[in-house]
Amino acid sequence: MERLEKRKVDTVSLVKSYVENDYYSNLLIIQSSILQSMREFMISEGFLEILPVIISPITDPLNHDIFDASIDYYGYSYSITKSMILQKQVSTLVTDRIFSMSPNLRLELENRYEDKRHLIEFVQMDMEVANAKREEVMDIMERLLIRIISEITVKHTKIIEKYNSGLVIPKKNFKRIRVQDAIEKYGDSYEKILSANAKEPFWLIDIPIMDREFYDKQNPNDPDFLLDFDLIYPFGYGEAISGGEREHEYDQIIKRMDLKGNSKNIFKDYLDLSKEGLLKPTAGCGIGIERLTRYILGLEHIEKARLFAKSPGKISI
Ligand code: AMP
Ligand code: MG
Question: Domain Aminoacyl-transfer RNA synthetases class-II family profile, which positions (predicted)?
Fold first, then answer.
C-alpha cells in the first residue's frame, strides 16, 4: 500500500476540533443515550450480552474487496473480526438470544470515503436468535429503532432540534420491498434511489443469492433468493442493518461455499461444527452504531459520528 503524507490526519487539529466547540460533547450525549437505550431494550427482550471477539481463525468472508487484516500467531493465522457471524451462531447454543457491541475492522478501499457511510473500524450491535424466522428479528429491530428515537427525542430535545430538527419517530410496520422488484424498477442503483426518496426507514428483502455470503439462508421455495433483509435509512443515509436467517446444515453450507468460491480450508471450523450437527437454525442481524448516530444527528459524513473515526484512505488516532 502506498504511503502518502496527505493521508495522515493532523492529531493536534483533530483534538482541537474535539474541544473547541460543543459538537463533540453533544455527540457523546446522543451516542451514549443510543447505547443505553439499545442495551436496556435488548435486555428487556430477554437477550444476554456476550463479550466481543477481536481475533479468530474465522471471520466474515464479506462480499466485497478489502485489504487483508490478519496476524500470525505461532504459525497460525488470526483474522481481525469483520463480523462475529460464527461466534453468534455458536453462542445461541448456550442461550437463545444474544447480542454484542462488536468492534469490526474492515480495511475498506479509499474510494469508499465518498459514500460517507463507511469507516474502517466501526461498532455494530450484532444479535442472533435461536430458532427464529427473519420476521421475528425484523419485528425486534423495528421496535428497537422506534424505542431509541423516541427516548432520544424526549431526553435530548434541544440537541436534536439543533442538529436534526426534522427527525421523525418511525411507525410500525416498516415498508418491505423485494430487491428483485426494486432492480426492475430502478436498475442497479435501486438502494441509493429508494433511500434518497424515502421519508421513513424501509426493508429490502429477498436479496439475490450471489449478492450475499454463504451463511445467509437460501429460500428453499425460491432458490435464487435469500431469506434475508437490509434496513435502509431514508433521506439518502443508506443501509442501516443487514441480517437474515442462517444456513446451518453441512451439505447446504458446502453447496453455498462452492457457489461463492469460499476456501473450505479457511472455514474448516465452521464446517466441522455443521458436520457434527452442532449448528442450529438461527436468525439475526447487525446494526452499525456510527451509522445510526449519523442518521439521528443528520450528519453529512460518518466520520463525525464518533471520536477517533478511521475513514477509508486516512490514518488517524
Ligand atoms: P454487514 O452485515 O456487513 O451489512 O454489517 C452490518 C452493519 O454494520 C451494516 O448494516 C452497517 O450498519 C454497519 N457497517 C458495515 N460496514 C460498515 C462500515 N465500513 N462502516 C460503518 N458501518 C458499517
Ligand atoms: Mg450489509
Answer: 97-312
pLDDT tens by residue, 182-202: 999 999 999 999 999 999 999
Residue range 198-226, pLDDT digits in tens: 999 999 999 999 999 999 999 999 999 99
Residue 119 alpha carbon, nearest atom of ligand 1: 20
Whether 298 shows a pLDDT value over 80: the answer reads yes
Residues in the chain: 317
> ∠ at Cα 98 (95, 104), nearest 5°?
140
| Atom number, ligand 1, closest to the C-alpha of residue 63 | 3
DSSP 114: G
CA-nearest residue for atom 15, ligand 1, is: 288
In degrees rounded to 5, what are phi and psi of residue 124? -120, 145
Which residues sit opposite 210 in a β-bridge? none
Taking the C-alpha atoms of residue 11 and residue 17, their distance in angstroms, rounded to an integer, is 10
CA distance 11 to 315: 10
Q: How far apart are alpha carbons 128 and 282 in whole angstroms?
A: 7
Mutate to test the pocket of ligand 1, among 87, 102, 104, 212 (most ligand atoms within 8 A of CB): 104
pTM: 0.97
Would you state the cell numbers that stand for residue 182, as one nine-digit string? 426494486
Q: How far apart are CA 161 and CA 274, in angstroms?
A: 50
Calculated CA dihedral for residues 15, 16, 18, 21, nearest 10 degrees:
180
Choose which residue among 120, 122, 229 to substitute to test ligand 1 binding: the one with the highest number of ligand atoms within 8 A of its C-beta. Answer: 122
Domain boundaries, the chain: 2-304
Looking at all shown ligands, the one closest to residue 115's CA atom is 1
